[in-house]
Design a protein that fits this description.
351 residues; mainly beta; 16-stranded antiparallel beta barrel; globular; disordered N terminus
């Protein structure tokens, strides 16, 4: 009788533990047809099926365990899916692979992740940092610079991050990425953000530094980025603004500075649609060049999980600028002082 009671107690305890743990499979598949003109110096055009025109295609697993006393442990594994080609090089978890603890003190994460200097301020981009309409301020501006991590500093390996609880709308985060080298510090990252969200008002500021190595005789240096972003939701429309300064400084050679700006408005249409209009200016002080981008998009939700979308973007380079519209699957470059027009139409499904 005692053994039966003990067995029942063990089963009950096991069931309670399982009830406090969960693992979720999630993802997004986004594919569409696109066109971009003047994709090279010869002025050629390009058509094709691309991926991630409205949201980055991905698949992932996340889990959480309630440890009691308000403390939780969790993991997150997430990899990008290239819907147009089916990941011929295989699936990895380079979008995120973290384990952490969360409680009344906030959250601590360890692993590969978006850095704190990017993950909040980038969220103000109306085009969610993907597709031809996206704000391209976080690109690798000095292509001659190299690191032992991600060239644009959006993510970092060997990262430890801390995010505070919500204090009356205020939150903050800080990240440190180890370079893990015996000599030098290329790839080392440090950055953070402070944000405020209260009703229709949202604002954030972020700063980060990525250690890089320049080409030729430039030697080691730093890439510093300061970003201010804000939005206000009027109900009938939402306004956003982004201002960013990126500066590359090396042991030898002049500093290279880039100022980037975005201003946009989005508005609901009917009960299922959203229209977006965003202007971006890329002031490339390093070459005295400039580029202007205008993006117009529409998203129509067929259900909570499925949407169709269309985006049109126009980019004008001048004074030596040679930027190209960002697109996955229909990658583009551009010649100096060239103009580009791009169109994407696609379907997005989440699960």
């Amino acid at each position: 009788m005692k053994k039966s009671l003990i067995a029942l107690a063990v089963l009950a305890a096991s069931g309670a533990a399982m009830a406090q743990s969960s693992v979720t499979l999630f993802g997004i598949i986004d594919a569409g047809v696109g066109y971009v003109d003047n994709v090279n110096a010869a002025g050629d055009n390009k058509f094709g099926v691309g991926t991630s025109g409205n949201a980055t295609s991905r698949i992932g697993f996340r889990g959480v365990e309630d440890l009691g006393g308000g403390l939780k442990a969790g993991f997150w594994l997430e990899g990008e899916v290239f819907a147009d080609g089916g990941n011929p090089d295989g699936l990895n978890f380079k979008r995120r692979s973290t384990v952490g603890l969360e409680g009344n003190f906030g959250e601590v994460r360890l692993g590969r992740d978006l850095v704190a200097g990017y993950n909040k301020t980038s969220s103000y981009d109306l085009f969610s940092q993907t597709g031809i309409g996206q704000f391209s301020g976080w690109r690798n501006w000095d292509s001659a610079a190299a690191t032992n991590g991600d060239e644009n500093g959006i993510r970092s390996n060997n990262l430890i991050s801390y995010y505070t609880p919500n204090f009356g709308g205020f939150k903050a985060g800080v990240s440190y990425g180890f370079d893990e080298q015996t000599t030098g510090k290329a790839g080392r990252y440090v950055g953070g953000n402070v944000s405020y969200d209260n009703g229709p008002i949202s604002a954030a500021v972020s700063y980060d530094r990525l250690n890089v190595i320049g080409a030729g005789t430039r030697g080691a240096g730093d890439r510093d980025a300061l970003t201010l972003a804000a939005s206000y939701n009027f109900g009938v429309a939402k306004l956003i603004g982004i201002a960013q300064r990126q500066e590359y400084s090396y042991n030898a050679g002049a500093d290279r500075k880039f100022n980037n700006y975005a201003l946009g408005v989005s508005a609901p249409v009917g009960g299922a649609g959203e229209v977006k209009l965003q202007y971006a200016r890329y002031d490339q002080k390093a070459i005295n060049g400039e580029a202007d981008q205008l993006s117009l998009g529409y998203v129509h939700n067929l259900s909570k999980r499925t949407a169709v979308y269309g985006t049109v973007a126009y980019l004008k380079n001048k004074d030596g600028s040679a930027l190209g519209l960002q697109s996955k699957g229909i990658n583009t470059t551009s010649a100096a002082n060239e103009k580009q027009t791009g169109v994407q139409v696609g379907v997005r499904h989440s699960f």
